[in-house]
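Thread: "does anyone have the structure for this chain?"

Original post by V.I.:
We have the sequence but no experimental structure in hand. Need at least a predicted one for the grant figures.
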Amino acid sequence: MDITAMDKGTISGPSQDARKEERRRAILDAAEMLFLEQGFAKVSLATIIRRSGGSLATAYELFGSKHGLLRAVIERDKCERQAEFDELVEHTESAAEILRSLTRRILEIVMQPRQAAMMRIVIAESISDPEFARGFYREIHLGRVEHLAQIFGGWNADGRARFDDPEAAAELYLDMVVGDAELEALIGDAMRRGGESLTARMDWRLDIFIDHFKVK
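Reply from O.Q.:
Generated one for you, tokens below.
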């Protein structure tokens, strides 16, 4: 065995991985900006690569297609949000306060113009490409549900809540908070009833959720 070659491989491996990850981030950053600036349909992979640098071959290797790249942009955002939630869970004792803080943060994120624009892209592409819609549901929506259900299960175990079905409760919470917030972000004031704010509606719903599942 050539020990010198093995040593070189050991040394160069992490560097190659780091360069690949850097290229991946650059492509994702460029794709997200261009999708938001020009719309998904008007942006080609070649245009993205011209902005990010690198090669089309690398883009196809990493993402497979433009839809794969869009899924990766959304997945990155989901992972960042989950990491933020995990930090909140780790540093907050009260499960009820975790849910209140999480709800406020979700509303802040969903109501951002960038987020609404990305939602419109996802909706449009889901209508035109059912396979993309199924992938989004499996990888993004069900991923969120599973992650939250694991947290809820942990609260059951340590006596901070009573979720008879943590997965169903997680889906209920996300439908209650994310679904309504996304709808208001898309259609605006038409969602408001009698001047009631989205935050006030969410506080009322969350109180019922917390009381029903005995979240402490």
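V.I.: this helps a lot. Residues 3-38 form the longest helix (36 residues).
O.Q.: and Residues 1-12 have pLDDT under 50 and may be disordered.
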